Amino acid sequence: MAHIINDDCISCGACAETCPVSAIAEGDGKYVIDADTCIDCGACEGACPMNAISAQ
Ligand code: SF4
C-alpha cells in the first residue's frame, strides 16, 4: 500500500519536501507518489493545501 495524490493537486510541491524517503516527484500535471518507495508514514498528508493526499 502507498499514499496517493488525487487530481486536486496543483503541483505546488509542498508534499515532496516532507517525504522522508523522497517518494514524491513532479508528474504530468500533478505530483505523484512512487508506490514502491512510499513507506505509508503519512507525513505528506498534512502538507497538502488542497487535501489531495490520502491513504489508499
Ligand atoms: Fe512519503 Fe510518507 Fe507520504 Fe509515503 S506517506 S509519500 S513515505 S511522506
Structure notes:
The protein is mainly beta and about 55 residues long. The chain has a single domain (about 5-55), classed as 2-Layer Sandwich (Alpha-Beta Plaits). Helices cover about 10% and strands about 20% of the residues. It contains one helix and four strands; from the N terminus they run βαβββ. The strands form two sheets. It has a two-stranded antiparallel sheet with strand order 1-4. Strands 2-3 form a two-stranded antiparallel ribbon. The protein is globular, with a radius of gyration of 10 Å. The mean pLDDT is about 95. The structure holds iron/sulfur cluster. The site of iron/sulfur cluster has 14 residues, from loops.
Spans of at least 5 consecutive residues with low confidence: none
User: Which of globular, elongated, flat, extended, rod-shaped describes the shape?
Assistant: globular
Give me the number of helical elements: 1
The succession of helices and strands, N to C, reads: EHEEE
What CATH calls the topology is Alpha-Beta Plaits
Q: Mean of residue pLDDT?
A: 97
Q: What's the number of extended β-strand segments? A: 4
Radius of gyration: 10 Å
Structural class: mainly beta
The side-by-side strand order for the widest beta sheet comes to 1-4
What's the CATH class, please? Alpha Beta
Biggest beta sheet summary: 2 strands, antiparallel
User: Helix amount, in percent?
Assistant: under 10%
- The proportion of strand residues reads 15-25%
What hetero molecules are in the model?
Answer: iron/sulfur cluster
CATH architectural designation: 2-Layer Sandwich
